[in-house]
Amino acid sequence: MTTMDATLLLGGPVDHAARLPWPFPDDLEQFRYWVTVVRARPGRATAAGGWGDTIVDLGGSEYPEIMAERRRIVAADPGRRRVMPGMEPACWDLLLYYLRDLALSFPQLMELHEDGDRFHWRNHVLGTDQAFVLGDASSLPTDPLTFLACEIPDDLLLVRQRHGGLHFDAGLVTFAAAWSVSFDVGMSMAEIHGPVPRLNAEQITSRAERFLTNLPADQVYRRANWTLSASGSRKLDVSLEELPEWGRDIPLLVREGNWGALQLRIEIEHFIRLPMTGAVTFNIRTHMASLEQIKTIPAWRDQLARVVLELPEDLATYKGFVDYREPAMAWLTDGRA
Ligand code: HEM
Question: Tens digits of per-residue pLDDT, 215-236?
Answer without folding.
Answer: 999 999 999 999 999 887 678 9
